[in-house]
Design a protein that fits this description.
This protein has about 280 residues and is mainly β. The protein has two helices and 18 strands. A four-stranded antiparallel beta sheet has the order 1-2-3-4, with helices on one face. Strands 5-6-7-8 form a four-stranded antiparallel beta sheet, with no helix packed on it. A four-stranded antiparallel beta sheet has the order 9-10-11-12, with no helix packed on it.
Length: about 280
């Protein structure tokens, strides 16, 4: 088999595996059998290349390119008829490139570029064309806020976004324009706090952020400015020892430093790792 045909076949097989793995067993899904092509999204020998999956109920959402509308948001219930494009966000053959798909309750959140001079912004979908809309133009105008690290706590999502006024900081959204707000300006002015490695334990958001006084350190937030606080500092050379590699251990997690090896087991560290747990 030529290399290109093999790659296309591999993409289709991968999609079939993905749908079977994430869509709960239903009569329709059971009829598919142990392994089957759900739908040839890009007709002929072209590849739809589905990727970035998220599940709500018995529906899996993903991005795919059908060769006509570009890479857009799709959904599937595991059947041919139920595998459809949700919306052509960027009109015509231009791709909106939906990515960072996350489910919060019954709502899907993701980032996309509508190619309408608003840049890459936060979107949401209820699975219908009419219900797939931009939540807010966070970085107003043609600039992109580039939301990343979208993480859900209940029906609220937290994410990293950028504006001209506050640079890259922690934001949250309840799915409304008014409820999509900056949580706290961790790095004052136009410096990037760049919140990253978001993790949730017992309803509290933990993340790594950077600010001038302490460098890159562990922070936590309850979604309010006052409740967004540094957890601990590392002392001298903090810039070189930013927390990384979260490992959840029940109601705690460990984080190895960039100067150390990751912890060897839950809540324990190798002799050289200096991996703190919280």
């Amino acid at each position: 088999m030529p290399r290109t045909n093999f790659a296309r076949a591999a993409c289709r097989i991968a999609f079939a595996f993905a749908v079977l793995a994430v869509v709960p067993a239903t009569p329709a899904a059971a009829a598919v059998g142990p392994l089957a092509l759900v739908r040839n999204i890009a007709s002929g020998t072209a590849s739809g290349a589905p990727q970035t999956y998220a599940v709500i109920g018995s529906t899996v959402y993903f991005s795919a390119d059908d060769g006509v509308n570009g890479r857009e948001l799709w959904k599937s219930d595991g059947t041919l008829a139920g595998t459809v494009m949700v919306k052509n966000i960027a009109f015509g053959s231009v791709s909106s490139n939906p990515s960072n798909l996350v489910a919060a309750g019954t709502t899907l959140y993701f980032r996309a570029d509508a190619d309408d001079e608003t840049g890459v912004e936060l979107w949401k979908s209820d699975g219908t064309e009419a219900g797939t809309v931009r939540v807010r133009d966070i970085n107003v105008g043609s600039g992109s806020s580039n939301p990343t690290s979208i993480t859900a706590i209940g029906n609220t999502i937290y994410f990293n976004a950028e504006t001209a006024a506050s640079a890259r900081e922690l934001w949250k959204s309840d799915g409304t324009e008014a409820g999509t707000v900056l949580v706290a300006e961790i790095s004052a002015g136009t410096g990037d706090a760049n919140p990253r490695s978001l993790a949730v334990i017992n309803g509290t958001l933990y993340f790594v952020a950077t600010e001038a006084a302490n460098g890159a350190e562990l922070w936590k937030s309850d979604g309010t400015p006052g409740g967004t606080q540094i957890v601990r500092t590392s002392g001298p050379e903090a810039w070189a020892r930013a927390p990384r590699g979260w490992s959840r251990c029940g109601t705690r997690f460990t984080s190895a430093r960039t100067t150390a090896r990751p912890a060897s087991s839950c809540g324990r560290a190798t002799a050289r790792s200096r991996a703190p747990s919280w």
